[in-house]
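Q: Hi! Curious about what Hydrogenase maturation factor HypA looks like structurally. Here's the sequence.
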Amino acid sequence: MHEMGIAMEIIDIAISSIPDNVKNACVEKINLKVGKLAAIVPDSLRFCFDIVSKDTPLAGAKLNIEEIPVVARCKECDFKWTINTPVFKCKKCKSGLIDIVSGRELDIISIEVVEE
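A: Let's find out. The predicted structure is below.
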C-alpha cells in the first residue's frame, strides 16, 4: 500500500508549509488533485492520512481529493478525449501515437491553516 508513504509525504509538506509566525497553528483541510493513472485509492489515502496525522498539527484535518480523469491527445490528428477504458488509441483515427495530457497528477492544491 503506497498510500501510507504518500500520506506521510503530504504531512511533511503541510507541516513545513505552516508559517512560523502563526502560533498554535493547525491544518483544517488539504486539497489534492489526484490523476486516475496515479494508482491511488482515495479512501485508502484518507485512511492512512488519518492514522499518520495523529499527534501532529494535521490531526483531524480533512483530506479533500479531486480525481482527475485520464485525457489523451493524438499525435496524428490532434484529437483530445477522456480515456475510460484501458485502450490507448485515438478514438477518431485509431492511431496508437498518443500523449497523456492529464491523469498522472498528484498535486497539493492548497493547505488551509487556522490559528487555535
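A: A fun detail: Residues 8 and 52 are 7 Å apart (CA to CA).
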